Amino acid sequence: MSLIKSMQEKILGRPSSITEDMVRSALSSIMDPDLGKDIVSLGFVRNVVISGTDIKLDINLTTPACPVKDSIKTQAEVALKNLPNAGTVSVNMTATTRGQVTPAGSPIAASLGQVKNIIAVASGKGGVGKSTTAVNLAYALAARGSKVGLLDADVYGPSIPHMTRPDAPMQSNSNLINPPMAAGVKIMSIGLFAGGDKATILRGPMVSGVIKQFLTQVNWGDLDYLIIDYPPGTGDIQLTLSQTAPITGAVVVTTPQDVALIDVRKAIAMFDTMKVPVIGVVETMSYFVCDGCDKKHHIFRDGGGARVAKEFGISFLGDVPLEPSVATASDQGSPAVVSHPASSAAKAYTEIAGAVASQVSIIHEAYKDALNHFSIVWNSQN
Q1: Within 13 Å and on the Cβ side, how many CA atoms surround 364?
Q2: What is the CATH superfamily name and number for domain 3-95?
Q3: Boundaries of every domain in the chain
Q4: What is the CA 361 to chain-centroid distance, rounded?
């Protein structure tokens, strides 16, 4: 450093270098909008390296699917560049997905021990786009960098294999089934073992046994999110799922009309009874935009999902328009978020995936001690 520059810094009161305290102070003004705290107090700022006036650091978020990741990075870069005499600024965005604790020796440890979050996608009735939502949610989370699995628990109407077209499952050396992959997502369904045109004829106890096998004898491995496509209704399968695995939260799918909302209320009540947090409501078939008039037509009424979410004090995660491309993509085995990413429906599902990831992080932040306690107690009782 030249003598002239050194004298200027002394006269003007400008430091010749930057300290870590200065970096953290500058970043403490950046808030995580979901968790309601600044990124410094949340412990997001890591691996700060300062070379003179050059700054390099990591910001470690709670999920790779964080919808405000780019915004936080931009804010951090601006804040650091505004430091006196700041040189090169390098902000690396990373993520460590928050999840529940599964003690070693638990009945689910071998299969689900490395699964951080289990998300139920449910509806009180069929025909509302629940499976389509589950598939697009899983693929959208995977596209954002999360490790994702998708379990088709709709034993009597398994549609996931047709919508994803994975390879056949194989047996592993550890006596666990290795789930096949489709677009980076691990897939499991009874439809992989029986042909798509074969009827599943099972009594209640046998169905419960199949569900337990999917949760305890499948090598799910290290996952940020395991999405479970629940069957419609509030019966044995739903009860078995909640008794076998600690569900992090549930996404409830509906269409706008009152006849669908009647059953949605039952689904929400079911999860409340089973002490499963409801992450929020997704409304499908919300509206149709015709080619000629570019106007939204609310074919099945308007705003039902938002109304029921407000009624129960839970989040409305988003609405999905009625688009032919969604059905076409599902029939071709390549969901809309992959095959038609620029479509309005795909964009809606991508935003919903970000909202789900945010709500899961909020659940863990708000109830982190309670969730770990629940996980330990739950495992000790099974």
Answers
A1: 21
A2: Fe-S cluster assembly (FSCA) (3.30.300.130)
A3: 3-95, 109-380
A4: 9
Q: Is the dihedral of CA 8, 9, 14, 18 positive or negative?
A: positive
Provide the β-strand partners of residue 60.
94
Residue 261 corresponds to which tokens in the numbers above?
A: 């909302």
| Contact (CB, 8 A) for 158 and 200 | yes
**Closest listed residue to residue 332, CA positions, set 185, 214, 153, 183:** 183
Locate all alpha helices (DSSP H) within 217-275, ordered by sequence. Answer: 236-244, 258-273
| Phi/psi at 38 (5° precision) | -80, 155
Q: Quote the pTM value.
A: 0.87
CA 300 from centre of chain: 27
Which phi-psi region, left, alpha or beta, contains residue 30 (left: φ > 0; alpha: ψ -120 to 50)? beta
∠ Cα 261 275 132 (to 5°): 45
CA atoms within 13 A on the CB side of 160: 38
Measure the CA–CA gap between 211 and 160, rounded to whole angstroms: 15
Per-residue pLDDT tens over the stretch 229-260: 998 877 778 888 888 888 999 999 998 888 88
Which pLDDT tens digit goes with each residue over 49-95?
Answer: 999 889 999 999 999 999 999 999 999 999 999 999 889 999 999 99
Distance of CA 297 to the CA centre of its chain: 29
For the 109-380 domain, the top CATH level (class) is alpha beta
User: In angstroms, rounded to a whole number, what is the distance separating the alpha carbons of residues 84 and 348?
Assistant: 42
The per-residue pLDDT for range 151-200, each reduced to its tens digit, is: 998 888 788 999 999 987 777 767 788 999 999 999 999 888 776 565 56
